[in-house]
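Thread title: Can someone regenerate the structure for this chain?

I was given the following input by a collaborator and told the matching structure tokens would be attached. They weren't. Posting the sequence so someone can regenerate them.
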Amino acid sequence: MSSVAFYTLGCKVNFYDTEAIWQLFKNEGYEQVDFEQTADVYLINTCTVTNTGDKKSRQIIRRAIRRNPEAIIAVTGCYAQTSPAEILDIPGVDLVIGNQDRERIIPYVKQISESRQPINAVRNIMKNRVFEEMDVPDFADRTRAFLKIQDGCNNFCTFCIIPWSRGLSRSRDPKSIITQAHQLVDAGYKEIVLTGIHTGGYGDDLDQYRLSDLLWDLDKVDGLERIRISSIEASQIDERMLEVLNKSSKMCRHLHIPLQAGDNTVLKRMRRKYTTEQFYDKMQLIRQAMPDVGITTDVIVGFPGETDEMFRNGYELMKAIQFSEMHVFPYSQRNGTPASRMVDQVDEDIKHARVHELIKLSEEMQLSYAQQFVGQVMDVIPEGSSKGVHGPGKVHGFSDNYLQMIFDGPDDLQGKLCRVKLTKAGVHECEGQLVRVMDEQPEVLV
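Best answer:
Regenerated them for you:
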């Protein structure tokens, strides 16, 4: 039996894509082995969001070649899409395939095993208007299933290379999404996380069908308990979206809404399509529609031209909004983007001082958000045992509003819907007490 090993860099969408590619190999009778073992085929799914992503991708490719010089080395993902020639220059690489045509991976692997001639299968992704259909009926960890509904992005923010590696926004056919949602529920999943490169842009290229329509259709899927959106832009939360958040019992009380910067001058230079006032007002509307919602965000610190005053404006805005957590990144120059050519780059030391200040603020806001729920009973789907950090006999999982909960319970609670009382709030995790298990029927796996 032939074996395949995978290594995935980057975002949740890449992890989904790797799972989908594994299904193709599995259907051909391949066995999956650990990346550190000897395999017949190594597939590296690369990231190009930063220059470091490129460098890490090259290191992993070389590691696979050293592991087994006889193996077929296939490279896909965003770095493969933008720099195929650079990857093929690495001696030992056999196949470079970008973010499309991946259903042809198996035929290419067969061709290479016969001819040992390297193949560059990367095409111009900007011309692609069709979503690449790749199903993932089952995942390795069985608690939350990711469901990719969209690819690409039309935004062209000045700091971002992703439209060039993923192409323009393309939505998956609604029927195909609903079919896969049913498959995932049949496989025992209670929660589905909708994911994409620009998830909230779902439906931009469809006729009279938006993300809010899809959410209502998913709401009707029997056996599905929770629907989570991996990320959405503030501007994409319109009246119809607010109505879903308000009325659907399956929507998680958690939204990830990237702010990126809290100053209008910086937002304009980033080419973000909102002002701080619009963003703040939208957060208030969301909280009216869905009380107690946890709102997490991304922030880029030290964007070119960001002065102390601009940073302060951002700090005050974030404090006023009261996010439940912030992912804070120092701005890093990405070759090929307009921002990397801007002259007023911010000193690294200043960036790091600002990052630390925002991380401290994030932790204060996280604790303050969690404290509101002490004594309340929440729905938690355990993801597994809490690997010894907290002693034996403890499990961990996320509440619907994205609080990480640790509580006493047996391993077999994994994937079941549990009611858990929050007893102690913490920054990155909270302690809880199991009240009851909601579904005591045995889990059915396909």
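The first strand starts at residue 3 and ends at 8.
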